[in-house]
# Entry
Amino acid sequence: MKRIDAAIGIRKATPGDCDAIARLNNGFADERLMLRRTPEMIAAAIDDYLVAVDPQGRVLACGALKEYSPSLAEVAGIAVDRATHGRGLGRAIVRAVERLAVQRGIPTVIALTLQPEFFGACGYVLSDVALYPEKIRRDCMGCARRAACDEYCFARSLVEEPGLAVAA
# Structure
């Protein structure tokens, strides 16, 4: 597997990234692999998004931290440009989102996904969404796919995770 190129950087998303994030996300939404997000939805949560960019500033991958409570957040909206699959960008974005959770003092993250192998490889453990009523109340109750949800729920504790500590 090719690893992430040193020229690719991961940074907080800016309002100028909203259209690129939406295009990346919605390409997968068109395949029913993700939920659709408008640039306006992304802009409303821009402080929670991170992006991987190439030297020209092109968004190659994205992800967000969706907070539910002081102790729980979701690693959400992980999308990687298909031309760059296999280079470690997905894992790098997940780790960056986890570091953001640690910075915010959130000890547990979950991920709802149609890609269980990916999150398993990232150290997540299969869980049950019923254990996270705050997720169900905020997102699942109003979701169009609620009656036929086929996503897997994964969880990961970030407490004392090596490599996720916030630099002083």
The radius of gyration is 15 Å.
